[in-house]
Design a protein that fits this description.
This protein is an all-beta fold. The protein has one domain: Jelly Rolls. It has no helices and 15 strands. The strands form two sheets. Strands 1, 3, 4, 6, 11, 12, 13 and 15 form an eight-stranded antiparallel β-sheet that branches. Strands 2-5-14-7-8-9-10 form a seven-stranded antiparallel β-sheet, with no helix packed on it. Strand 3 and strand 4 form a beta hairpin.
Length: about 200
C-alpha cells in the first residue's frame, strides 16, 4: 500500500493540520495563488507546525518528501522540514532539512535525531535566503539523499532513524527565536511512502 499526499493549498480542505504554541495568532494565512503563510506570533519561542493528520510514515519503507517554500526573514528563526515523531522542536526522532538563523542567515543543514539523542546537523552549503527553495529527501533503510533546487547535495549512509519502529509525521515547522513574528511561506508539500 502506498501513501501519497500533495498539499498545494488550492482546495478548500487542508490535508495538513496546524499545531503550535498557544501564543501564535493567525497561524495559517492563505495567500495568492495557493501560497500559505505559517506564522509564529511575536514572542520568543513561539512555533507553528503543519503536519500530516496522523503519524503514518514509517521511515523504514522508503518515504520521499518534498516542499517548495521560503522564509520571510533570515534572522532569529529556526525551521525544519521533514519527518518527526512529534513537534519538530522536541521530537525524539527526526529526518529532514533544518536552518537556524541567529543575527544573520544560516545555511540549510540536514538534521537527524535518534531516540532523543543530540541532534546531528551537517551543513548542506546552501545559504538561507528569502527566495523560494525546492527541497526533497529520499529515505531508505540504507541511505538518505538530500536535494536542494534539484541538485543532490548530500547522501548519508548511517546514523539516521530508520530502525526506529515509531511512525512519524511529515512536518513543516518554524520557530521564532526573538520577540518578533516569523513566517514560513509554502507553495506545496508532498509525501509518498509505502506502508
Amino acid at each position: 500500500m502506498t501513501i501519497s499526499l500533495l498539499e498545494d493549498f488550492i482546495e478548500a480542505t487542508d490535508k495538513l493540520d496546524a499545531t503550535g504554541s498557544s501564543g501564535s495568532t493567525n497561524p495559517r494565512v492563505d495567500g495568492a495563488g495557493g501560497l500559505v503563510e505559517i506564522r509564529t506570533g511575536a514572542a520568543n519561542g513561539n512555533y507553528r507546525q503543519l503536519q500530516t493528520k496522523s503519524k503514518n510514515v514509517d521511515p523504514r519503507f522508503s518515504p520521499i518528501f518534498s516542499a517548495y517554500l521560503r522564509t520571510k526573514d533570515t534572522t532569529y528563526l529556526e525551521t525544519f522540514i521533514g519527518l518527526a515523531d512529534g513537534d519538530a522542536g522536541s521530537a525524539q526522532n527526526l529526518i529532514g532539512f533544518y536552518r537556524s538563523d541567529a543575527g544573520s542567515a544560516g545555511s540549510w543543514q540536514r538534521r537527524f535525531r535518534i531516540n532523543n539523542g543530540t541532534p546531528d546537523n551537517q551543513d548542506l552549503l546552501v545559504p538561507g535566503t528569502t527566495n523560494f527553495i525546492e527541497m526533497m529527501a529520499q529515505v531508505s533503510v540504507t541511505e538518505v539523499s538530500f536535494f536542494l533546487n534539484g541538485r543532490l547535495v548530500r547522501v548519508d549512509t548511517s546514523n539516521f532513524p530508520t530502525t526506529v519502529t515509531n511512525l512519524m509525521y511529515f512536518v513543516l515547522w518554524i520557530k521564532a527565536t526573538s520577540a518578533s513574528e516569523r513566517t514560513l511561506v509554502v507553495d506545496y508539500a508532498q509525501l509518498t511512502a509505502s506502508r
